[in-house]
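Severity: low
Component: inverse-folding endpoint
Summary: output formatting inconsistent between runs
Steps to reproduce: submit the following C-alpha cells with default settings.
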C-alpha cells in the first residue's frame, strides 16, 4: 500500500515535467503558416482572430505538421547562428508544446510524436515549395522564409527560457526535499544494518562536528523553541531555510526580456513570467504538504525523523506555498493590468475568482494553524484545518484546471491524502472494535488495558491513535504510547482538559473503573535502536515515562537487555505519580535498571483542578497503589535535577557507547539535547541522543 502510494506520488510528479510547456519556435511559426492560403483553405471555420480555432484541423494533418516542423527546424538553425544555445533541446521542447496543446485543447490524440514527425519530415520529398508559391498553388508542405522568422526568434528565446527554467526550478525544489530525506534514510538504515560502522562515522572528527553544531544541537534556547514550535535539532531548520533560499532565488532569476515578441513591455512580460513561475512552484509543494501531514508517512519509518520534524516541514512548506501564490496573484495582476481593460475582464472569470478564494483560504490556514490556536483547542484546529484543506483543493482545482499544466500535482495530492485516509481505515478495521478496561491511577493517570484480538503489531516506543466510543468523542483520535501486553495493549493516559478529562470523569463516576469500546489505529512512530549502546540513560518527565517504559519493558520481556547498563531518571511532581507504575517498574529494578526518582514538589495538582471530579475512589486507588510502592525500587532525590550538570557526568564517565533517551516536556527534551551536544567533545566515546515529544 505504502509502496503504491509513493509510486503514485513519484509517477505523477515525474509526469508533470513533460506537461510543462516551453515553446521557442512553435508560436512564431504558427502565425505565418496558418495565414498561408495552403493551410487556411484546409482549415474550416478558421477565425483569423483566434488561432486556437485551427488547432483541431491541423494537428492531425501530416502535411501541415511537416510544414510546421520544417519551420521550427529552420528557426532552430537560425537561433544557433544568432548565438543561442541548445537548439536541439528547444526544437524538441517546442514540438512537444505544440503536441501538448493539440492533445489537450482540441482532442487530437493522434498528433505525431517527436520521433514520428522527424521520420515524416525526413521522408517528405525535398525541396519543399516556398511560402509564396504555396500561397498561389496551395501546395504542402512549404518552407517559411527566413526574413519572416528572423525578428521573432530572439524574443521567443527569453520567453521559452522563462518557461523552461520554471520547470527545472520546480524540479530542483523537489529533488532538494528528496535529497534531504534520502540522506537521512541512508544514515538511519546504517544505524540498523551496520551499527558499528554508523558509530565510527558519527564519532569521527567530522561526524562529531556535524552532530555538535547541526544534528544534535537545539536550534536556539527553549523559550524561542516554544515560541516558534521548532522543537528539534538544527538540521531541519537549516534544511527548511535552504529550501526557502533556493525557492525564492530561483523564483527571482533568469527573466530575459527582448523586445519584439508576444509581450508589449518588460512589465507585461515579467508580470506573466513571474506569475507563471510563482504559480507552478507551489504546485510542486502540494503533494508534500499532504504527505508530510499524514499519519501513514512511511518516511517517518525510513528516516527515523519523528512526526514533529515532518510536521515542521509541512508547516513551513505551507507558508512558502502561501507566499508563492500571493506573489503569483500580484505578478499576474501587474502583467494583466498592462493591457487596458484586461484586469477587469479577468476578475469576471471563474478561474480567477477560484484562484483568489484558494489564496485566501491558504492565508487563513496559515493563521489558523498557528501553535497558539492549536494548543488552545486542538480538535477545533484539526477539524477546521481539514475543512479549509478541502475547500482549498476544490478552488485550486477550478483554478488549475483552466491552465491544466500542473494537474498532475493535484492528482498526486488527492492520491496521497486519499491513501493516507484509506490506510487509516484499513488499520482501524484490521484491529476492530476492542474493549478497554480503564482504571483510575494516581495523580491524574489512567491505566487503559485494551483487549485486542487482532493486536496492532506494537513495537518498542510506538504510539497508537485511540478512538473512545461515545457520542461526545467518537470522532476524536488521540495518540498514546502503546505497551504490548499478553492480551493486547496497555496505555497510561494522563488526563488534561479535553477528551481525557471526560473519560477520567466517567471512570471516577463509575467507582474508579470503567469499560469502554475503543478503536485502535496504529502502530506509528519511528523505531529507535536503543539496544545498540553499551550504556543507556533515560530521562523521563511526568507522563513521558510511557515512551521509555514501552522501549524497556518489551526488551525486558524479550530478554534483550543483557549487557546494557541502564539508568532511568524520572522527574515527577510527587511520589504518588510513581505508584501507578510501581508494579511495572519493579520489573525494571529486577532487570538491573537503576531508577532515580526526582520529586519536584509535594502537591498532586495536575494540569487542571480536580475538585469537580475528585471522588473517594480516586483517593482509595491512590492509597492502594501507594501500598505497592517499594522504596527499594528507586533512589529518591528531591527537586529538579540539573540536566546541564547531570548529563556531562555520564558522558565523562562513559566506558563504552552511550545513548540518551528523553521524553517529557519540550523544555526537558531541549535541555538534554543541549547538554549532550555541548559536551560531545568531553568524551571520546560515541554518544547519541534520542527524544520523543508529546506535543503536536
Ligand atoms: C506521539 C505521542 C505519544 C503520546 N503518548 C502519550 C501517553 O502515552 N500518555 C499520555 O498521557 N499522553 C500521551 N500523549 C499526549 C496525548 O496525546 C495528549 O495529552 C492528549 O491527546 C490530550 O487530550 P485532551 O483532549 O485531553 O487534550 P486537551 O486538554 O484538549 O489539550 C492538552 C494538550 O494535548 C494536545 N492535544 C489534544 N488533542 C490532541 C491530539 N488529538 N493529538 C495530539 N495532541 C493533542 C493539545 O494541543 C494540548 O497541548 C502523546 C502524544 C503524542 C504526540
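Observed output (run 2 of 3):
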Amino acid at each position: 500500500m505504502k509502496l503504491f502510494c509513493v509510486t503514485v506520488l513519484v509517477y505523477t510528479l515525474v509526469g508533470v515535467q513533460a506537461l510543462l510547456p516551453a515553446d521557442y519556435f512553435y508560436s512564431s511559426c504558427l502565425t505565418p503558416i496558418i495565414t498561408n492560403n495552403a493551410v487556411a483553405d484546409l482549415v474550416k471555420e478558421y477565425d483569423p482572430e483566434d488561432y486556437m480555432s485551427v488547432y483541431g484541423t491541423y494537428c492531425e494533418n501530416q502535411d501541415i505538421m511537416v510544414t510546421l516542423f520544417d519551420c521550427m527546424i529552420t528557426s532552430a538553425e537560425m537561433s544557433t547562428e544568432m548565438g543561442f544555445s541548445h537548439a536541439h533541446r528547444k526544437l524538441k521542447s517546442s514540438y512537444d508544446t505544440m503536441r501538448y496543446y493539440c492533445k489537450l485543447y482540441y482532442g487530437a490524440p493522434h498528433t505525431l510524436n517527436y520521433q514520428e514527425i522527424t521520420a515524416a519530415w525526413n521522408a517528405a520529398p525535398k525541396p519543399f515549395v516556398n511560402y509564396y508559391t504555396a500561397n498561389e498553388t496551395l501546395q504542402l508542405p512549404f518552407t517559411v522564409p527566413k526574413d519572416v522568422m528572423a525578428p521573432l526568434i530572439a524574443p521567443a528565446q527569453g520567453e521559452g527560457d522563462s518557461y523552461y527554467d520554471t520547470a527545472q526550478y520546480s524540479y530542483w525544489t523537489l529533488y532538494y526535499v528528496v535529497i534531504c530525506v534520502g540522506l537521512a534514510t541512508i544514515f538511519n538504515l546504517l544505524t540498523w544494518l551496520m551499527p558499528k560502522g554508523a558509530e565510527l562515522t558519527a564519532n569521527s572528527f567530522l561526524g562529531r562536528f556535524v552532530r555538535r553544531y547541526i544534528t544534535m544541537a537545539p536550534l536556539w534556547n527553549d523559550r524561542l523553541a516554544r515560541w516558534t514550535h521548532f522543537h528539534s535539532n538544527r538540521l531541519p531548520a537549516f534544511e527548511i531555510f535552504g529550501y526557502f533560499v533556493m525557492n525564492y532565488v530561483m523564483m527571482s532569476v533568469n527573466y530575459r526580456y527582448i523586445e519584439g515578441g508576444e509581450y508589449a513591455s518588460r512589465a507585461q512580460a515579467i508580470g506573466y513570467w513571474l506569475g507563471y513561475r510563482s504559480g507552478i512552484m507551489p504546485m510542486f509543494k502540494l503533494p508534500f504538504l499532504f504527505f508530510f501531514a499524514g499519519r501513514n508517512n512511511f518516511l517517518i519509518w525510513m528516516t527515523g525523523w519523528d512526526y514533529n520534524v515532518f510536521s515542521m516541514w509541512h508547516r513551513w512548506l505551507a507558508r512558502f506555498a502561501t507566499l508563492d501564490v500571493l506573489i503569483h496573484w500580484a505578478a499576474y495582476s501587474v502583467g494583466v493590468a498592462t493591457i487596458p481593460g484586461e484586469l477587469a475582464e479577468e476578475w469576471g472569470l471563474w478561474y480567477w475568482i477560484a484562484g483568489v478564494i484558494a489564496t485566501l483560504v491558504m492565508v487563513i490556514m496559515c493563521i489558523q494553524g498557528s501553535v497558539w490556536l492549536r494548543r488552545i483547542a486542538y480538535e477545533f484546529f484539526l477539524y477546521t484545518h481539514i475543512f479549509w484543506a478541502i475547500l482549498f483543493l476544490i478552488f485550486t482545482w477550478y483554478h488549475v484546471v483552466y491552465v491544466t499544466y500542473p494537474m498532475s500535482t493535484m492528482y498526486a495530492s488527492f492520491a496521497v491524502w486519499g491513501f493516507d485516509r484509506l490506510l487509516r481505515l484499513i488499520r482501524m478495521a484490521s484491529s476492530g472494535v476492542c474493549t478497554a478496561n480503564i482504571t483510575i491511577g494516581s495523580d491524574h493517570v489512567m491505566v487503559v488495558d485494551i483487549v485486542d484480538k487482532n493486536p496492532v503489531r506494537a513495537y518498542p516506543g510506538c504510539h497508537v491513535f485511540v478512538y473512545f466510543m461515545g457520542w461526545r468523542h467518537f470522532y476524536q483520535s488521540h495518540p498514546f504510547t502503546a505497551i504490548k501486553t499478553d492480551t493486547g495493549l496497555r496505555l497510561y493516559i494522563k488526563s488534561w482538559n479535553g477528551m481525557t478529562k471526560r473519560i477520567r470523569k466517567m471512570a471516577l463516576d463509575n467507582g474508579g473503573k470503567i469499560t469502554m469500546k475503543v478503536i485502535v489505529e496504529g502502530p506509528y512512530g519511528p523505531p529507535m535502536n536503543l539496544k545498540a549502546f553499551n550504556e543507556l540513560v533515560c530521562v523521563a518527565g511526568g507522563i513521558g515515562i510511557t515512551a521509555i517504559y514501552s522501549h524497556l519493558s518489551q526488551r525486558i520481556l524479550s530478554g534483550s537487555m543483557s549487557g546494557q547498563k541502564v539508568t532511568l531518571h524520572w522527574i515527577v511532581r510527587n511520589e504518588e505519580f510513581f505508584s501507578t507504575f510501581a508494579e511495572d517498574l519493579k520489573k525494571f529494578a529486577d532487570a538491573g535498571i537503576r531508577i532515580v526518582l526526582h520529586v519536584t514538589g509535594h502537591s498532586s495538582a495536575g494540569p487542571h483542578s480536580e475538585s469537580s471530579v475528585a471522588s473517594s475512589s480516586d483517593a482509595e486507588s491512590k492509597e492502594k497503589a501507594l501500598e505497592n510502592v517499594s522504596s527499594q525500587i528507586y533512589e529518591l532525590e528531591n527537586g529538579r535535577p540539573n540536566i546541564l550538570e547531570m548529563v556531562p557526568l555520564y558522558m565523562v564517565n562513559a566506558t563504552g557507547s552511550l545513548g540518551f533517551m528523553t521524553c517529557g516536556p519540550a523544555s526537558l527534551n531541549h535541555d538534554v539535547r543541549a547538554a549532550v551536544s555541548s559536551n560531545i567533545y568531553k568524551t571520546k566515546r560515541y554518544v547519541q541522543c534520542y527524544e520523543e515529544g508529546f506535543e503536536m
